[in-house]
Amino acid sequence: MQVKLTNRQQHILWATVRHYIATAEPVGSKALVEEYDLGVSSATIRNVMGFLEKGGLLYQPHTSAGRIPSDSGYRTYVDQLITPSENLSREVEAVLQKRLKWEDWSLEALLHGAAQILATLSGCISLITMPQTERATLRHLQMVQIEAGRVMLIVVTDAYETHSTLMDLPTASPDTQLEPEVIDRELQIVSNFLNSQLRGRSLLELATLDWTQLDREFQRYGDFLKHSVAELTRRTVTPSTTQIMIRGVAEVLRQPEFSQLQQVQTIIQLLEEEQDQLWRLIFEEPPSDEVGKPRVMIRIGSENPLEPIRTCTLISATYRRGSIPVGSVGVLGPTRLDYESAIAVVSAAADYLSEAFS
C-alpha cells in the first residue's frame, strides 16, 4: 500500500535517501539538520523519520542506529521525488558520439565500447545485449481451452519450434457466462483471425502491433490477447547463444553492500553462467508513451525475480531498429545508487544505440 506523504515528509525522505546514497551510513536527524536546509528542528525530523519507518519507507539496521531506506523507500524516491536529468542524458549521448565511431567500428567493438563508457559513467555493472538480427517468425497460432477459465496459447515458428504459455481467460460479465462449447468456438475464430493477421511476422514485431485492429465482437479478448502474446514473446525471443557485454564488475563489488563472499559468488555466477535468465529480464520493457522512444525499467531490490540480485537495483531499456526492439542496455548496482544519473545514462545509451542501429 502506498503511503501518502506531505511535502515535509517527502522532503525529509528525499534528504534521507540522498544522504544514505552519498555516505552508505545510517542517517540520523543531526546529519540532516547539518547537511540540508530543511527549515525544521531536529526533533521534528526525528518524528517524521519515525512516521516514515512505520510506513515501511525507512528502517533501522540495529537499535540506536540511524535509519536507511527500504526498497519501498527507494521506490517512492524514484517514482515521486526525483526527475532524471535531461542535461545529463544529453551529455552522455555527446560522450558516446564523441568516443564511439559506429560508422567505422565493428558491431562487437561498438557494443564493448558503449558498455565500458556506461560502466564508467554510472559506477555500476553495465549490461548490453547483442542485437537479435535473426528473428523467428510465426507460422501458426492456436488457442485451446484446457479447463474452466484457463487457455493455452500455442505458437509454431517458421523453424517448426513450438512454444506455449498458459493464461487466465478474461472474465465475462455475470449475466453473460458462456458455455465451454461456446468459448471453444470463439477461441477457434479468434485463432483463425490472429493467424490471418500475424502469420509471417517476427515474434519481436508482435510487441509493437496496433491491437485496436481486433474485431469489435472480440473486444473483451483484446487485452488478454495482447498480454498473452507479449508474455509468449518474452519467453521465446531469447537467442540460442545469448551474449551480453558486461563491464564494471570489479568496481561495483568493492561496494560495502557486497562484503559477503557468498553474495558476490552468486552474482558472478548469474553474470557468467546464467545469462539466459538475465537476458529475459533486461529485455522486458514497460509500455512506451511514444512509439520508438525507449522507457527505462527500474527494478529495486526485492522487485527483482532473480534471487542473486534481490539486494540490487537493475535499470534497463531496449534499443531498437525502427520500432522493433532488438537489444537491451542496462546497469546493475546496489540499491544505494545515484538513481537520477543511472536512469539518465541508461536512457541516453538506449537512444544512442537505437540511432546507430536504425
TrEMBL record:
GO molecular function: DNA binding
Every Heat-inducible transcription repressor HrcA C-terminal domain range: 108-343
Origin: domain of life: Bacteria
Listed InterPro entries: GAF-like_dom_sf (IPR029016), HrcA (IPR002571), HrcA_C (IPR021153), WH-like_DNA-bd_sf (IPR036388), WH_DNA-bd_sf (IPR036390), WHTH_transcript_rep_HrcA_IDD (IPR023120)
Keyword annotations: Repressor, Stress response, Transcription, Transcription regulation
One of the protein's GO biological processes: negative regulation of DNA-templated transcription
NCBIfam families: hrcA (TIGR00331)
UniProt family annotation: Belongs to the HrcA family.
Function statement: Negative regulator of class I heat shock genes (grpE-dnaK-dnaJ and groELS operons). Prevents heat-shock induction of these operons.
HAMAP family associated with the record: HrcA
Annotated protein name in UniProt: Heat-inducible transcription repressor HrcA
Organism this protein belongs to: Hassallia byssoidea VB512170
Phylogenetic placement of the source organism: Bacteria, Bacillati, Cyanobacteriota, Cyanophyceae, Nostocales
Recorded name of the encoding gene: hrcA
